[in-house]
Design brief:
This protein is of the alpha+beta class and about 525 residues long. The protein contains eleven helices and 26 strands. The chain folds into two domains: about 220 residues, Immunoglobulin-like, CATH 2.60.40; about 270 residues, 3-Layer(aba) Sandwich (Rossmann fold), CATH 3.40.50.1460.
Length: about 525
């Protein structure tokens, strides 16, 4: 489907926007690092932890977290009780829709409980280290779950080892001779992990048992269940160092959606870890495998502002009847729009459509698992004959947005709200039918599949971020071409500068509607 906005001459100019600082209300961080353990604990020091703390703070800034909302616990301050107390304090601060970042750098450990082994983090102890000083995966889940019940997203990064099977005495001494150390402290050898033992070094299973939604939290771990994560004195934990570099701008937007997801950041960081560890392979020191669980496609940083295509429309009239029937047919500015599209970006049209589809999927992946949006719509329409009608029902009050990627892949359309029907507030547990009086949509081709994204947001969005007012085109529907800048703006509209309020949580549904002759 395409919106018919004919006889429109586009005069485009590029306006360069300079990068600016980004901070968001309702974002919090807890950063814990233990590099110097007490002598009585007989635990190897990790000299790179101060660098980890610096990198974690930089990542918090990139997530929009300001200094006054960052709590740090380091070395002697990072006892088990103080960490638990900080998590409880965080729970009281977090409001619905907030985002939380929790980071830990230090030793991991495993110990036996009955006939099973428990994984956890070694906290600071003034006396000999015992199992009572371990913050177990169950503890982590217990104290972070209440936070995840309020927060829109909870992001944790754990740079520690929960493994032991690959650590022998020779391994430990060699790694120290090389200046790098495994971030692992063994308590009972029978809980060392064999390479082929199917275990996980994650508190995600424990979180799931407590009923946490995987859309609401994500954990990044420095190593797999049977691997060692490494501490380098000069730049800190290798995983943290690599993740920070990638999160701060070195990661690639692989699917060209206009945003960089945590999975894309992980892939970037993994390459860095592998390259760094290559020279150490001769000594038996191998790369670890970064793990990510939960909302792996979460976008945590705001994309830098982009070049805005300012479009000056000539007077034009959308194809309408006396009843304001909007025929969804033709191409916006058929005479010059496609030419201008090709002059803006050299992408092949098929590739650009795939990228635009990835943009919609990336927005969809940001949904909150506690919010639900049920959509009823036809799966197939006959061109020139069938109207496009749909209904929605949500489990919460909010603001409804409907964005369509046309079957030709050339444009995004903001179908709702539109210039005729602007009140997009809906109530919970109420069925709404669309189109409403005054506007309608009919299948107009070309033959192909439309991708339609439905979003219920807890806060309204600023439509000027979707596309500038002078570039919205004629007719009832605001539209933009699907070049890279427009893809970035669509991401920004839903999860960046477009959010007009503290609570950016959203529900989403992404459907396909096929058009046939």
């Amino acid at each position: 489907m395409k919106c018919d906005i004919t006889q429109l001459a586009l005069q485009a100019s590029l306006v360069l926007m300079l990068p600016c600082a980004f901070a968001a209300e309702g974002r919090h961080a807890l950063i814990v690092g233990i590099g110097q353990y007490s002598e009585a604990s007989q635990t190897t020091a990790l000299p790179g932890v101060p660098k980890d703390m610096e990198n974690a703070r930089k990542m918090a800034y990139a997530m929009g977290i300001e200094d006054q909302n960052i709590v740090e616990l380091r070395d002697t301050a990072a006892t088990k009780q103080s960490i638990i107390r900080a998590l409880q304090d965080l729970r009281t601060k977090v409001q619905q829709g907030d985002r939380v970042f929790i980071y830990y750098s230090g030793h991991g450990t495993r110990y036996g409980v009955g006939d099973r082994c428990v994984e956890g983090l070694q906290t600071y102890s003034s006396g000999p280290f015992t199992e009572a000083d371990v913050l177990s995966e169950e503890d982590l889940a217990k104290f972070t779950h209440p936070i995840s019940e309020r927060a829109d997203k909870l992001v944790t990064i754990v740079d520690a080892c929960f493994s032991g099977g690959v650590l022998a005495g020779k391994t430990r001494s060699l790694s120290q001779d090389l200046g790098i150390r495994p971030k692992y402290n063994a308590t009972r050898t029978e809980c060392s992990v064999a390479v082929n033992e199917r275990l996980t070094r994650s508190f995600v299973p424990a979180m799931s048992r407590l009923g946490a939604s995987r859309e609401n939290f994500v954990q990044i771990a420095a190593a797999n269940y049977n691997e060692v994560s490494w501490d380098f004195p000069q730049f800190g934990g290798l995983a943290t160092h690599s993740l920070a570099q990638c999160l701060l701008g070195e990661a690639t937007d692989i699917n060209r959606s206009g945003a960089v997801s945590l999975e894309e950041i992980r892939q970037c960081a993994q390459q860095k870890v592998d390259e760094t560890m290559k020279p150490h392979a001769r000594y038996g020191r191998f790369s670890s495998t970064l793990q990510i669980r939960g909302a792996r496609n979460l976008v945590v940083t705001q994309a830098p502002p982009v070049s805005i295509v300012s479009v000056q429309p000539q007077p034009a009239v959308a194809e309408q009847s006396s009843k304001d029937l909007v025929s969804v047919s033709g191409t916006p500015n058929a005479s010059s729009g496609s030419q201008r599209l090709e002059s803006i970006k050299p992408d092949r049209q098929a590739d650009q459509k795939l990228a635009a589809e990835a943009t919609l999927r990336d927005v969809y992946e940001q949904r909150n698992g506690r919010l639900r949006l049920d959509v009823s719509a036809p799966k197939q329409l006959v061109i020139g004959k069938d109207p496009f009608e749909f209904s929605v029902r949500a489990n919460a009050d909010g603001y409804l947005y409907v964005v369509m990627l046309g079957s030709d892949g050339k444009s995004f359309y903001l179908l709702f709200p539109n210039k005729i029907d602007q009140d997009n507030r809906i109530k919970a547990n109420t069925r709404y039918n669309f189109p409403r009086p005054g506007w309608s949509i009919k299948a107009g081709g070309p033959d192909g599949t439309n991708q339609i994204l439905f979003v219920l947001s807890q806060s309204p969005r600023d439509a000027s971020v979707f596309v500038p007012d002078d570039a919205s085109g004629g007719g009832p529907f605001t539209y933009s071409v699907t070049d890279l800048d427009s893809r970035k703006r669509l991401i920004d509209f839903f999860i960046g500068r477009g959010v007009q309020g503290r609570n950016g949580s959203l529900a989403a549904s992404l459907i396909s509607v096929k058009e046939i002759p």
